[in-house]
Each structure stands twice: as C-alpha cells, then as structure tokens.
Amino acid sequence: MFRREKVFKPLTNSLLTGTLLTKRERDKWNIEEEDTPPPSELIGNLGSISALYLYTNTPPHGYGSQAPKVAETINRAYSYNLKRFSKVQKLEEFKVERMQWEKEDGPFPHNQIHGNFLAPELKSMAEKFLMLYQPIIDKCAEDTIQKAMYENADVLTKGRQTLDSLTDSSVTASVAFKRMHELYRNNLSIEATTCLEWVECFFRCLELPELKVSTSRKRTVDKRKYCRITKTYTKVPKTVKIPALMNIKEGNEIKAWMMKAATKFASYIKHKERGKLKRRAIASANMILRMFLHIIEEFHLELGKHIEGSTISIGGEEKKRKIISNLNTASLHASSLGVTLQGTEDATKWNEGLAPSAFAIMHKVFFDQETRERLNLPSPSEFGSIFSQIATRGNFLMALKTVQLGEGPISKTDLTYNRLSWDDDINRFNEQTKEWLKEILRRGIDDGYTPASPGMLMGMLNAGSTTLGLLPVNHLMNQYEEKVVTLRSSDDSMSVYIGISLAHTFQSIIDNRRNLGLIGINLSKDKSFFFKEGFGEFTSWYMDGDFTSQFGVETSSIRPQGKNPPDDHASIAKGTATALGTLTMNHLGATSRLKLGAMGVNRLWRIQKINNKREGVSSNVLLLSDGGRNLWNCCNCHLEESSLKEREAQTMEEKEYLLRVRNPNNPFSEEPEEEISYNKDLGGLQLTIAETPRTAFHYVKRSNRTVTTNIKRDMFLEEKSCAEVINIIKTVDPTTNVDFPNEATRISKHLFSILHVERAGHDLSESEESLFFKAMDILKNGIVENDDDEAPSDIDRMETL
C-alpha cells in the first residue's frame, strides 16, 4: 500500500506582489494574490529571513579537550621556522626559537609561508617609521608611562577566565589577581600597587633570598561510589587539589620558578564562533605577563589614533572618516596621475607568523639612544626609556611562553573507560592523535605545559601587531613611480596601489607582498583580491565608489541582559529610545529592534503566549513577562511598560491584576537599589533609583554557587564582606562612585581623615559619640579579636610542602 502523496502549495511572495507590482501588472502576468497572509508559525520567527543565515540560531559551542587545537597551532608556528642552522638558542633551562634569517640559511623564503624575518630590513623599516612619527611616539610613551604610574594594578581584573600561575588553574581574573597580589604582599610587604609598581614587584621577586608561595598540590584520595546493580559501595581513587605553602630558598630556584610563573598560558576552546567548520584554541596569559601586555597595548592603541593607516583604536563614524580620508590621499610624489588598484587582503596565519623578537627589535629601535643620534633625532625621554625596557622584556617573556595542553583523550574498552595522561604509552593513542603528539613530546611537556616559543599565538598584542604590520609600507620603493597606501587593523588590511603605468602598479603589489614577507607576514595569494579603485572590504566596512558603510551582521545590542524578564524588556525599550534620540536608528529599525528584542527575552526566559491565561484579563493588559502583548512601538518606547498596560485596563479584573503584580510588598522581588552617578547637566553627583516599578516578575535568580568546601565558604564570605566594605567606602566618600582611588594610601587612613573632618560640623549625643569613636578606633587599629574566637588563617590550614 502506497502512502498518499502530499502536494505542497507554493506561497506567493507577499513582498514582491504586495509592494513592487501594481494590480495591472499582476493581472497582465496572471500572478495570483493571497487573500490572507501566510500562517504566523511560518513567518513569525527569525528563520523566515533565511534558513541558511548563520546569525539566526544559537552559536556553536565547543566541547572536548582543547589539546588537539592547541597542538595544531603550536606545531604550525614551529613549522614556519624555515631556518637551516641555529634554529634554537638555549638560555639556562629555556629554549628560544630563533626566527631571524641569516646568510648561512640561504636565500630568504619569499614564496613560502614562513615566520622568519630579516633583522637588518626590519631595523631599517623601524628607523624610517621613527623618523616619520618621532614626536608622536615620544608623546604616546610619556602618556602611557604616566598613566601606568597612577593607574591601579587592579585594571587586570577586567578580564574573565585567566590563568592562576600559583595553582595552575583557570579562574576568574579577580581571583587570579588577588592570589598574585597576596604573593607580592607576603614577600615584599606591599599593600597597594600601581601598574608600574606591579611590574617592579616581579623583578624584585627575582632577587629575593627566599620566596613563600601559597600554591596547591595534587593528592589521590579514595572516594566511595555506589553501584545500583550490586547495591554496594566501592572505593574509587580520585585526584584532588589541596592548598599548600611552598618555601623556595635558593636564588636560582626562585628565579626559575618566577620565570615559569610569568610565561604560562591557559588554553581554551573558542566558543560561539560562527561561520567556521572547526573550533579553534585561544589562550589567556598569567597575571604577571598580562601587565606587560597591558602597558604595551596601551602605547600602541594611543599611537594608532595618530598614525596613518591604523584603525585598531577607533570605531564608528571616526573609523569611517579615517578610511575615506587615508585612501583619498593616495597619490604619487609630484604627480596626480597614475594607474590605481585597490586590494582587499588576507594574511595567512597572522599570529603564527609573527615572532616576539621582531616586536622587540621594533620597540628597541624606537627608543634607542645610538639610533636617534645617528638619525639626528632628539634623545628618548625617561618615559620612553622605561617603556622600551618594559616592552622588550615583555617580548622576551613571550618568546619563553608555555601553553597549557589540556586534558588527555578518553580511552575506553567494552567494560570501562579512563582519561589518558600525556606521559602514557604513545601506542595507547589513536593514529590521528599520534601525528601531532609526537611533535609535542619531542619538545617536551612539563607539568601539563608545552613550549610555544615562536609566534604571537592566539591573538596577543593586536594593537602592537598593527603597528608592526605598517612598518613595511613603501619600504625600498621609488614613490615617484609606485606607492602603497595601507589601512590595517591587526591581521585585516586594505591597500591602494598606484603606479605611473599598469606594469608599475602590478610591481607595487609584488613589492608590498615581499616587504611584508621580510617581517613574517604572508599575504595569501588565494584570499587577497584586487579591484578597481574605490571597491573593497575592510573589517566589515565595504567600499563601492563614494559609498562606504558597515555591513556587520552581529546584533549583540539586542541581546537580553539576563537580569530578570521585566528589566530585560525595559533595557531593550530604553536602548531603542536612546538610539532614536541620537539619530543612530530610524523608526523602521526601531520597530524591528523592539520586536526582535522582545522575542529574544521571551525565548531566554521561556515566556509563552497562552490565550486566556488569566481569566478576565486581555493580552493588552497582561505584562510582557506574563505572556502579554508588546505595546511598545517607535513612538512610545521611552515609557514604562506597566503604565502603558494600565491605560488598556477596562474591567475590575484587569485593574486588580495590575494591583497584584505591582504590589511593592510581593515576596519575589528585591528593593530597588540606589545608585550614585555623575550628571553632566547638573555638574555633580545625583542619587537615582530604578525607574521601572518592581513587579512580581522582578524575581531574584537563585545563585548556583555551591559551597562544597571550607575554602569556597571562606571565599564567598570574604566576597560578601568586601561588597559591604565597598558600600561603606562609597557612603563615606561619594566621589569613589565616579572615580576609583588611585593612590597607594590605605583606604582606612583615607576614611579616618574624612570622618575626622566631618565630625567637626556635627553635634553628637553621648551614644553616638561612643559609636563614632569605636568606628574611628577600628579604622586606626583594626578589629581586635579574642584569642579564643580567633579562627585559623588560610596559611595555618595549609600543608607545608
């Protein structure tokens, strides 16, 4: 028996027939017109845009061990060193890959993908760049170092996951910073540090006679496991980390330990990356090296605002203006004529090809006294010399870097499975793993870390690499016959090539590619495209003649905040109203954003629209968070939602519904918090409270932070105490709401002086006076606890290695 064939009726394209064709044209060409719109389940979702549109559904999520991806990147970087002789230089227990090409290595590999560079040519490029931008370079170095002298080192806590070198674990940036700060405090007796002092602490630790480190060590313990089949318990060995205190007393051992701690990277799989078939590996530096990278990037980000061709520091309309103005200045010396081509360029494996030593040469040349004397340039300032030392030493640490390999693969049999470690017999791994593991094992694995000397792996120093990539522009080119104008933002670039003839223009393309190859940048022959002037793409900015616009497809601004449904809906509406007020969005875009934003919030919180959900309450009165209708449009999105709903309430049931959900005494929501902010119009601080009235749907999310150990319990209590301390500080000194303290003075002394001054203007009762002096005594001397009540400290609980 055959199944009945189902015939699908094609849906008429409502856009074409309804907007582009007149009735006469539809009748002439016999085009049918639907009397009713298509079913809402077919068109009421983002999938109606395109089933193949990459940004419609949830992004891909990486899974499994990152080891194959990490090994792929590292092995590729090592393979790009095409030197024949003296490939490795040994420095004590470290091995540095030598990427500079020398005469004995033979002809330079221009036509091969490589990571090598010619040091004399790179030096010459940097000197020409210095002659062109010397005043700007000196000013940027001065601004960077002056900022580092007063900026708090806790700027490093802005990151998310990062490596804690003390315990070799991936933790939040604030936890890693706290542990490294405790190391400096316990060994150097420092309390607070600026960015520059943070760097100084690292070098001071290298010279200590003894170093105390709060670390962790692994221990195997027996855990009970219940078997449901036999209904018995069995002992299963499990490896756990326990806190420990390590004392290092030998000078060489201290130096070796600190250098290892400063060169470690944690590795991860990159999530939420669309348009890529395979996942990639990313890395996060430790808290020591992050400060070096932070200062170097600050310099290059500031430099990028002033030099031609760099757009790494800017965005929006400012970036658009720089793109247009830089490309419009493209002309030959002493001639306005010429043949012009425009290239949209792609660099092959940008990060793996750049050598840390190439960055060091660039930073050395910029502030070298002998170089400046030879070029008749002013001597570098003290700020420039300090920056040069920080930059070159940071580049040296990058050349010694090691990357966390990650967990081993899972091996299984018919009866059981276990996770392999990297020092197991290589024959236990499959053939695909053996290919890359042999290369990794040849270079060695030390406590889960593998050397990764060559390359700026996984996107380190994006702004610095932008400056480096601009050095070769017009190097050794006769600019009366050919010229190149380049826009660059890290690995993305677009260039205009000009020549007095078509042959000279083609030659300028070849020369520019060779110049980039001299410092380890490999322009792809397959992915670089050359068009007529005025046509190209650069960082999602597309040019077509005089028209330049961004065609980015990311819409992160309408992503729900994740606080609670009403606040998420309100943030979408408020953001849309702001965009309309600043003329960054028209009314059609505002309407689309409101619809898409509300749909996104409903999906996140699983809010379903159910007919007759509340008896006697229409969908116009039901709150959005309760599955109601969205009443916001481009003209009223500046208004509060429940007030709009109140205008639609007609019956007593609807009015009582709004009274119930807006009852301020409901047990589901918190009291709105007061916030102190700086108002430009008033020229001072003002106290603000959330404008959105609290409803029963402003519920508090349950925390998923499970307290499983005493250490976690102590950490959560400490975080809670610190939050209360910050509230006290903001209350006593309201200026801290606007500007963070940036001096090394203890905050207790600061509060003591403020309260001492404020006390003079108030009359206190006897009880208030007693309470005031008690608070002042605590600020001056701290809280004195009884010996019986004193809890053991973290160090007392630690085992001594």
Automatic annotation (TrEMBL):
Gene Ontology terms: biological process: viral RNA genome replication
Transferase found in the keyword field: yes
GO MF annotations in UniProt: nucleotide binding; RNA binding; RNA-directed RNA polymerase activity
Record EC number: 2.7.7.48
Domain RdRp catalytic residues, every copy: 330-529
UniProt entry keywords in alphabetical sequence: Nucleotide-binding, Nucleotidyltransferase, RNA-directed RNA polymerase, Transferase, Viral RNA replication
Catalytic activity from the UniProt record: RNA(n) + a ribonucleoside 5'-triphosphate = RNA(n+1) + diphosphate
The protein's enzyme class: transferase
InterPro entries: RNA-dir_pol_NSvirus, RNA_pol_PB1_influenza
Name of the molecule in the record: RNA-directed RNA polymerase catalytic subunit
Organism (species): Photinus pyralis orthomyxo-like virus 1
